[in-house]
Design brief:
Layout lengths: L12 E10 L2 E11 L5 E4 L6 H9 L6 E6 L2 E2 L2 H4 L2 E4 L10 H11 L4 H14 L15 H14 L4 E5 L7 H16 L3 E5 L3 H7 L2 E6 L2 E7 H6 L4 H7 L6
Bound molecules: adenosine-5'-triphosphate.
Length: 245
């Protein structure tokens, strides 16, 4: 059984003239950005660079002051938005069992009991949580909780999966498990767009990279190229661990 079946393989995401300003300060200013490779796309940059704002705009959680977001060549709509999923730094889980958290999402999709049961079991196995199905989601460890949050996102059969620093609070082993889930989703056709501070993680996961600084995209390209020959001074400084002020 396929774990989930995206509607389209790696749908293209693009933004045009995206701007957000608050109290006279430009927080996000992205003229043109297209994500059309297979991904995963990793958004890198220092604190306050605008990474989360860009991710939230792409997912429609924040309305920009101006500019547009398109998916698969269509302007963002509620229907397209509902085909996307997002995972945050701190897992958002319901006060239910582990299986109950997954069933909640599967039930919302209108799936029959037998289909839900099979899908839930497949997801639990995929996330290494089969033996914790009846346990309260609130009692999971940080790594397990984040795995469940990702499984919940995948239970929506998303076309696009946004992840905002999902491993920043996790140890290396838990991080590795999350990275495997992310790569697997990407291989199965989900467009993965992930924010991280961790350059090592970006090197492990990224097919392409977007580097941000001061609300702008300072560099974008294939990961191998950006890491080997960064074009922007900001990227070079960031990759070398220099302070970016
Ligand atoms: N709702 C808001 N109102 C005012 N300013 C905001 C708002 N949301 C974000 N900002 C500001 O926009 C800038 C970019 O924030 P953002 O969270 O996107 O940065 P980031 O690159 O994700 O940083 P970090 O890595 O620290 O999470 C920051 O200066 C932040 O304070």
């Amino acid at each position: 059984m396929r774990d989930y079946a995206p509607l389209a393989e790696h749908p293209t995401l693009s933004v045009q003239d995206l701007r957000i300003a608050r109290e006279g300060k430009m927080l996000l200013d992205v003229g043109q950005l297209t994500l059309d490779g297979p991904g995963p796309t990793i958004i890198l940059g220092p604190n306050g660079a605008g990474k989360s704002l860009l991710l939230r705009c792409l997912h429609g959680l924040i309305a920009p002051d101006r500019g547009t977001v398109c998916q698969g060549g269509e302007f963002m709509s509620e229907q397209l938005r509902s085909s996307q999923a997002m995972v945050f730094q701190r897992p958002v889980l319901l006060r239910r069992s582990v299986a109950g958290n997954l069933d909640f999402v599967l039930r919302r999709r209108g799936l029959a009991w037998g289909v839900r049961k099979a899908a839930c079991q497949a997801l639990l196995v995929q996330g290494g949580l089969a033996d914790k199905a009846r346990q309260s989601a609130r009692s999971l460890s940080g790594g397990e909780a984040q795995r469940l949050a990702i499984l919940r996102a995948l239970a929506c059969e998303p076309t696009v999966l946004f992840l905002d620093e999902p491993t920043s609070a996790l140890d290396p082993e838990a991080t590795q498990e999350i990275e495997q889930m992310v790569l697997r989703a990407s291989r199965q056709g989900v467009r993965v767009v992930m924010v991280t501070h961790d350059i090592g993680q970006a090197r492990r996961l990224a097919r392409d990279v977007v580097v941000m600084h001061g609300g702008r995209v300072v560099e974008q390209g294939p990961a191998a190229q950006v890491f080997a020959e960064p074009q922007s001074m900001m990227t070079r400084r960031f990759l070398s661990g220099g302070l970016m002020v």
